[in-house]
Structure formats: structure tokens, C-alpha cells
From TrEMBL, chain A:
Pfam families linked to this entry: Fuz_longin_1, Fuz_longin_2, Fuz_longin_3
Name recorded for this polypeptide: Vacuolar fusion protein MON1 homolog
GO biological process terms, semicolon-separated: endosome to lysosome transport via multivesicular body sorting pathway; protein targeting to vacuole
Chain ranges of the FUZ/MON1/HPS1 third Longin domain: 424-543
Organism: Pieris brassicae
Residues covered by region (Disordered): 1-36, 94-114
Polar residues biased stretches: 1-14, 94-105
InterPro entries registered for this protein in UniProt: FUZ/MON1/HPS1_longin_1, FUZ/MON1/HPS1_longin_2, FUZ/MON1/HPS1_longin_3, Mon1
TrEMBL record, chain B:
Pfam annotation, one family: Ras
Record-level GO cellular component terms: late endosome membrane; lysosome; phagocytic vesicle
UniProt xrefs under Gene3D superfamilies: P-loop containing nucleotide triphosphate hydrolases
Biological processes annotated in GO: endosome to lysosome transport; phagosome-lysosome fusion
Annotated family: Belongs to the small GTPase superfamily. Rab family.
PROSITE patterns noted in UniProt: RAB, RAS, RHO
Keywords in alphabetical order: GTP-binding, Lipoprotein, Nucleotide-binding, Prenylation
SMART domains: RAB, RAN, RAS, RHO
Compartments where located: Late endosome membrane
GO MF terms, alphabetically ordered: GTP binding; GTPase activity
Organism: Pieris macdunnoughi
Name of the protein: Rab7
InterPro entries in UniProt: P-loop_NTPase, Small_GTP-bd, Small_GTPase
């Protein structure tokens, strides 16, 4: 790191900024819940043993709240938020444990079967492993290889976790070796482990494990998950999750590639303001009389087009990410209208919403999700969908969506770097904090993401090869360490500037935004700062296209 | 309910130190025996696939340490076990006497849902040795008094009854599993409509 300056750069762009109190993309209303996921996961890492037990169980149900409101039940439900237990004093313990004496036992001449399998090409040299097991030590999911054959390893993991927990009254958080980080997360009845050789920080790994846990909750609900293991601690959860492994597989790839996860923000599909307005009002005019509808969400290519919501309720970015993942992972949505139970863990982990999911039309790859608390609303919602699709077609919104999705060259947002006209900028990503939305200069196209390690059960090896042309995904990899420095709880940096012969990276966080920019190598600081100033002005100019600036309700 | 699904059984082996727990497991998993004695530290984990009634079953075997000083690991290890194998040495009567406390200890720590019908199997090991001190009859009587626990006389050294014993262990644990499955169907979704009046919605026709 060449230099880390923490000086306040407030005056960079304030003098000639048209609306100096609002940073680009900010609006007074947000459809998304702008909780900072980083702070949240830092808390996760500092939670105490006692706090953990209450954390997953005590939350009131938003769904029953909505239901009682719709049913005009007078009983007011109180929102009891479990207070996160903030025990900062126990910092992450790092220990190195060898399981050599576990293996030595099995005779001198042979290595154990487990040991052999762990050295098989299926498992060796992978950049990141993720294992999920029950608190009894039974395997539930492995990213690579066969979880049955890893039953022994799961036993070892369970033993490590419980020895620390029960003998030392402490929490095993991570084991760090020279080239590998192993991060442990106990959530309810499950143990999740990430083992990574990449440059991701422990917090970033915990974030990914939490997402994997939430993906499971999204399929089962937390209530059901807890109840299963209360009733039968020896339960083999693979039974209930069969088919959902694919969701976790895809989510893990998705998280490595899309900065949206890193920043806890949602990408929006850039659209002319008027088009987005038309789409939103088509949805509102069609759905405003459907009483139980909680959210109507139109998405395309992992990007949000619009979100209309029931008054009072917003969605957390991580719930939207799970919806993106669900849609992206399910080919069947393309061929038929679907009716599916979906649990959104941040919204309400205790119950299912019911979703009507369908693509708008054969010639437009935008997917509409209508989420309700009503179990048998398929037909009215199906009808609503067709009405919405007709309206969008008639107002040429489908064409506009397709243009944006196909990255039509005429759109300024397709290749922003060209339009900004600062040749030294190679890449940037910008997050507006108050609305939890994200814009990057080179959005990952859906196809590229899908091609990428589609059959990753065979891929995912550590790659040493140098890539010639960097894509969004590679920049994200570079930004990771800057991101964790900026969000470091102990000594957060406001601004990081690093310049070397490969590139120059600037990371900057203010109350309103987070910005990461990659410049040409050996860029000078004041030049970079002037460029950033122009960049911010461009974003401000385009904000109505690249962000959703209002928070419509039914 | 499909019975073709993959099954994984967690099997705990308990017994005094030196009765041959690790040897039995090694004989079963690796078909090997060593006369050398090495105490197990904490626990060993081995897996083996067996076929029971056309089903492929993965046995996750937790071979625990018999020595007193490792016993504090108990709770964590016993949690969620599908079957418990209690081993004694037929040449050492005190290891037979300990069975009672091993069984009690397991039931207390693991607290299975139905302790009376939790699948145990008793193995009297080292029958290849001449200095036998616990008769088969005595062992069988004890097993009968404990809700008819299956009893096998084994020799890890000469591979006597080892395969059969573990087959029985898998079969009994599996029986428990399917039995539980019958009256334990998990509902697809939880009921959310408890306080919803289910009134007719006025938006059914989607008039705009």
C-alpha cells in the first residue's frame, strides 16, 4: 500500500455540485432497507455464545403482521428486535489445529480413507470450499465433491466447534494458516464453514456463509428449520433440501463475481426516467386493488427494474439478492407461470410469502415477481401479470428494457467510461448508501456470469494465470481488500489511494456513498482526485437513469 | 416418501479403554488389524458405505476415546446419534460391568427422543483369546434386561462377526429412521393464516 490518507476530502466536489446536500443517487425515500451489511457481519463476528442462541429465534413475524392488518385484526403486533449482543472484547481467535493425531490412529502403514479422499482432485487446490453440516456433525452440503464421503471431515469440524464451545465456553471463529483461511459460523442448528485461499477477509467470508444460511432459510423458513432439529437432532437435512443445492452452488458463484454482495447493494437496470415511471405506474394501476400483495418486483439480468411495495414495508438488499439468485437458477420460470413459496429471511424468516413468478413475455427477459401473503392468489395475480405485460408492451417499455439488457450502444449507460471521457479511468463502482443501490462501469452481463464455471463442480481451482483483459469480476477481486480496510471496525479508513506499476486504485467512503475507482498505473493523487470529481458529476447527471430515485407504493 | 434417498447414519462407539473399539472399526472399515495398542485421543472419524436392503447407507462412525480424561467431550459427540455401539472385552469383567454406566451416560448426554427404543448394540470383543471371563449367557441376560439389545460376540483380530454386527447396527438405526419418518411428515409450509379473516378481496378482477 503506497499511501493511506485519512484526510477528509469533503471539499472536492462540493463547490460546483448542483445539489450539494445530496450525493449522486440519493433520494429521500428508499425502496431498499439501507442497512450496512458490513457492519452487520462485523457484529456477527463479535457475537457472544449467549447472544447467538437468541439471535435466530426471537423475531416477530412481519407476515402475520401484514395478515392481521389486512384482516383488520385489532391486535397490534409489537416489533421486537432482538438486540444483537455486542461483545467486542472477544476478538476473533485464531488458532491452528492439527488433526494429525486423529489420523495417526489408523495403523501405521495406511492412511485413512478420509485422508485419501481429501487429497483427491475433486477437492484439492480449490480456491474456496464451503461445507454445511448439522450440529450433530452430519453433512448437508459441500461445494465440491461428495458430502457423503466427507462425513469424516464433518465429524472433525463438529468436534472442533464443540470442543471450543463446550470446554472453553468460547466460539471458534477462524483458523488461519499460511495460505488458507477457514471461517466457522454456527447459525441455529447448522454449522457453516468456508475455507478460502482467495484474498477475501474473514468478514467477507462470514457474509457469504450467512447468505448460504439465508438461502436455506429461504427454502424452509427458520421456523421449520429449527423445529426439525428440535424434534430430531439426527435429521439428515439433505432430504428437505434436495434440489436446493443448486441454489447454494449458484449463490456462491454469484457472490464471488458480483460486487453487489460485497457492498450490500442492489444493481438497477439503467432506464430512461420516463420509462421506469411508466413501468411503475402500469404495475400500480393494475395491482393497487389487490389487497394482499406485499411486493411487485420486476427484474432483469440480476438488476432491479422497479419495486412497488405495500406501505411501511421495504426489502433488504440481501433478500433481493436471494430473489435474483432464485430467478437466475430456475430455468423453469422461463417456460411457465409459477406459484412458489418464498421465505425472505430479512423480511420475515418465520414464514413464507407466496410468489407468482413469470417472465413478462417471450421476447423480453424481464421477470415479474408478485409476492403476497395469500396462499391461493395465483389466478388473480396471473391475470394481473398479463394486464401488466400488455400495458408495458403498448407503452414500448419492453423495447426499452431489451435495449438496456442488450446494452445498446446508443445508451450512455451501456459504456459509461466512453461517455465520461476520462481515459485514465479503467473501472469504477459506486454505491449510494442511503438507497443501497450500486452502479459499476462494466456490469457483468448475464451470459458471462452464467458461462462462468457453469459446471463449477469440476472447476473452481486456484488460478495463477494472469488474465489479459480484466472484467468487472476481476476488478471486484482487487477491490475486496480495499473494501475491508474501509469497513474495518477498529480503524476505518475514509480514503485509500494506492498507486503502483500495475494500476492505481482509489477507494473513498463518505456518509453518502462508497466509490472504488481503478486508474492507469502511477497516476498522481491530485489528478486522480480531479478525475473523481468529474466522475461524480457524471453520476449525478445520470442518476435518474441509473438509480431508482423514488419508493413507490400500491 | 421415497426410500431411495441417500442415508447417513451417525454411529457412536463407546466402551472402556482397551476393549478394541478402534480395532473393530478398523477391521470393519479397512479390513485390517494391528496388535499394537494406541490410545485414541478424543475421537476418530471414519466412514463406510454399506448396503442394507438395497439402500446405500453411509455410516459415519465416531470412535471415541475410552479413557476417562477425554470424557468431557461427551455431549458434543453424542448429539444427534442414530445408533450407539457399546463394546466390552470378554476377558475383562470390569469392562462388562461398565456397560451399564456407558449406556446411562449416553442416554443422559444424547437425550434421544425415545430412550427406551434407542438402537444400541452390544459387542463382546476379543473372543479369540483363551482367557475368557464373561460368559455369553451372562452378557445375553444383561442385554435382554435392557429391552433386548442385540448382542454379538466379535473378534476384531480374526474378523469374527464384525461385518454382521455393523450390518445389524445399520439396519436397526435405519428402522428407527423410517419409523420416525412415518409419523413425522413435515408440512410443506407453515400455516400463516391463523388470524386472517380470509375476506373476499375486491381486486380479483384486476380492474384498472
Amino acid at each position: 500500500m503506497a499511501s493511506t490518507s485519512k484526510d477528509n476530502m469533503q471539499n472536492i466536489c462540493s463547490h460546483d455540485n448542483p445539489e450539494k446536500d445530496l450525493e449522486p443517487g440519493a433520494s429521500h425515500d428508499s425502496i431498499l432497507n439501507p442497512t450496512d451489511s458490513f457492519e452487520e457481519f462485523a457484529t456477527e463476528m463479535n457475537s457472544s455464545l449467549e447472544g447467538r442462541a437468541t439471535d435466530v429465534t426471537k423475531k416477530s413475524s412481519t407476515i402475520s403482521e401484514i395478515q392481521s392488518e389486512i384482516g383488520e385484526c385489532s391486535k397490534a403486533l409489537k416489533e421486537t428486535k432482538s438486540s444483537e449482543n455486542l461483545l467486542n472484547k472477544d476478538e476473533a481467535i485464531s488458532s491452528s489445529v492439527s488433526n494429525s493425531n486423529l489420523q495417526e490412529q489408523n495403523g501405521d502403514d495406511t492412511e485413512s480413507e478420509l485422508d485419501d479422499y481429501l487429497k483427491s482432485p475433486e477437492l484439492v487446490n480449490k480456491e474456496k470450499h464451503v461445507f454445511i453440516l448439522s450440529s450433530a456433525g452430519k453433512p448437508i452440503y459441500t461445494r465440491y465433491g461428495n458430502e457423503d464421503k466427507l462425513a469424516g471431515l464433518c465429524g472433525v469440524i463438529q468436534a472442533l466447534v464443540s470442543v471450543v464451545e463446550e470446554q472453553n465456553r468460547d466460539i471458534l471463529r477462524s483458523i488461519i494458516t499460511k495460505d488458507c483461511k477457514a471461517v466457522f459460523l454456527v447459525k441455529g442448528p447448522l454449522i457453516l464453514v468456508g475455507m478460502s485461499k482467495s484474498n477475501e477477509s474473514e468478514t467477507q467470508l462470514v457474509l457469504q456463509l450467512t447468505y448460504a444460511f439465508n438461502q436455506i432459510v429461504s427454502v424452509l423458513t427458520l421456523t421449520q428449520l429449527n423445529r426439525i432439529f428440535e424434534q430430531r437432532r439426527n435429521y439428515d437435512l439433505r432430504r428437505l433440501l434436495s434440489g436446493a443445492e443448486r441454489l447454494i452452488d449458484n449463490l456462491l458463484i454469484f457472490m464471488e463475481k458480483d460486487p453487489a454482495f460485497l457492498l450490500g447493494a442492489v444493481r438497477c437496470l439503467p432506464l430512461p426516467e420516463k420509462v421506469r415511471e411508466n413501468i411503475t405506474s402500469a404495475i400500480i394501476s393494475t395491482c393497487h386493488k389487490i389487497r394482499d400483495l406485499v411486493f411487485a418486483i420486476l427484474i432483469a439480468g440480476n438488476q432491479l427494474i422497479t419495486l412497488v411495495r405495500m406501505k411501511k414495508y421495504t426489502l433488504h438488499p440481501s433478500d433481493i439478492h436471494l430473489l435474483f439468485n432464485l430467478v437466475r437458477s430456475s430455468e423453469s420460470f422461463k417456460t411457465a407461470e409459477s406459484w412458489t413459496p418464498i421465505c425472505l429471511p430479512k423480511f420475515d424468516a418465520t414464514g413464507f410469502l407466496h410468489g407468482h413468478v413469470s417472465y413478462i413475455s417471450e421476447d423480453c427477459q424481464a421477470c415479474l415477481l408478485l409476492l403476497t401473503v395469500q396462499r391461493d392468489a395465483f389466478y388473480p395475480l396471473s391475470q394481473a401479470k398479463h394486464t401488466i405485460a400488455d400495458k408495458l408492451r403498448r407503452s414500448y417499455c419492453l423495447t426499452a428494457i431489451n435495449d438496456a439488457l442488450n446494452r445498446n450502444k446508443d445508451l450512455t449507460t451501456t459504456n459509461p467510461l466512453k461517455h465520461i471521457g476520462i481515459p485514465e479511468i479503467r473501472h469504477f463502482m459506486y454505491k449510494c448508501k442511503s438507497t443501497a443501490q450500486l452502479f459499476t462501469s462494466d456490469p457483468i452481463s448475464l451470459d458471462r456470469l452464467q458461462d462462468y464455471r457453469q459446471r463449477h463442480k469440476e472447476g473452481g481451482d486456484v488460478v495463477k494465470k494472469k488474465v489479459e483483459k480484466l472484467s468487472d469480476m476481476d476488478y471486484v477481486r482487487n477491490y475486496r481488500e480495499f473494501c475491508s480496510k474501509i469497513h474495518c471496525a477498529r480503524s476505518p479508513a475514509k480514503l485509500i489511494f494506492r498507486s503502483n506499476s500495475e494500476d492505481t486504485i482509489l477507494a473513498w467512503i463518505t456518509n453518502g456513498f462508497e466509490l472504488y475507482v481503478t486508474f492507469d498505473p502511477l497516476m498522481e493523487k491530485d489528478l486522480a482526485i480531479r478525475a473523481v470529481d468529474r466522475l461524480l458529476r457524471w453520476i449525478k447527471n445520470e442518476e435518474k437513469r441509473i438509480f431508482i430515485m423514488n419508493a413507490p407504493t400500491f | 416418501m421415497s426410500s431411495r434417498k441417500k442415508v447417513l447414519l451417525k454411529v457412536i462407539i463407546l466402551g472402556d479403554s482397551g476393549v478394541g473399539k478402534t480395532s473393530l472399526m478398523n477391521q470393519f472399515v479397512n479390513k485390517k488389524f494391528s496388535n499394537q495398542y494406541k490410545a485414541t485421543i478424543g475421537a476418530d472419524f471414519l466412514t463406510k458405505e454399506v448396503i442394507v436392503d438395497d439402500r446405500i447407507v453411509t455410516m459415519q462412525i465416531w470412535d471415541t476415546a475410552g479413557q476417562e480424561r477425554f470424557q468431557s467431550l461427551g455431549v458434543a459427540f453424542y448429539r444427534g446419534a442414530d445408533c450407539c455401539v457399546l463394546v466390552f472385552d470378554v476377558t475383562a469383567p470390569n469392562t462388562f460391568k461398565s456397560l451399564e454406566s456407558w449406556r446411562d451416560e449416553f442416554l443422559i448426554q444424547a437425550s434421544p427422543r425415545d430412550p427406551d427404543h434407542f438402537p444400541f448394540v452390544i459387542l463382546g470383543n476379543k473372543v479369540d483369546l483363551d482367557n475368557r471371563a464373561v460368559s455369553a449367557k451372562r452378557a445375553q441376560q444383561w442385554c435382554q434386561s435392557k429391552n433386548d439389545i442385540p448382542y454379538f460376540e466379535t473378534s476384531a483380530k480374526e474378523a469374527v462377526n464384525v461385518e454382521l454386527a455393523f450390518q445389524t447396527i445399520a439396519r436397526n438405526a435405519l428402522a428407527q429412521e423410517t419409523e420416525a419418518e412415518l409419523y413425522n411428515e413435515f408440512p410443506d409450509q407453515i400455516k400463516l393464516n391463523a388470524n386472517d379473516n380470509n375476506r373476499n378481496r375486491d381486486g380479483d378482477n384486476c380492474a384498472c
